[in-house]
Amino acid sequence: MQRSIARFIIKPVLLIMLLTQHGFAEEGIFFKRHSIYQVDSINNVYLVSAQIDFQLTPYLEQALMNGVVLKTGIYFGLGEHRNWWWNKTDSLSSINYQLKYHALSRHFLLTRNDTNENWNYRSLSTALRNMGHIVNYKLPGLSMNTLDGNHYLFMGVRLSPSTLRLPLKIQSLFSDQYSLSSEVISWPLQ
After folding, report:
1. Given its phi and psi angles, is residue 66 left (phi above 0), alpha (psi -120 to 50 degrees) or beta?
2. Domain boundaries, the chain
């Protein structure tokens, strides 16, 4: 008797808790995990792996569903710490994607621009998960003087509509509703 009462009370409470947590998911771009490995010490070459979680704003999701192409740039760079001024940064590489919704087939089309690879997905969550899945991405070789303890590698992500009209371009500078940026992850070089 007590088990059945507990089952009727606990199950609905747990269900309500799960639904409210899902409904209040934070919007933005988040790194679930990230790692870097040096694979060639002679040429100073690194491999980067990461899982990036994309939580679109309602504006961006609605724009995608209405035919606006979303572009994503995952960028990698080399930084140098400076004591007297801002850190020096140089761009190393980037992975660029375009995400479209095809209304007739009800598929999400994901294109990687640097390799011209294309994928079709039935759900937006699957397309976003695969867009954020980076496995052993090879960075260009670095010079050996970057191992002085003053340099670091960094990675960040930006997502925005490919076309924004003029008022929204100005508003996108001050609001995360129209475009998203992640935190910047960095790894020291030694």
Report:
1. alpha
2. 27-188
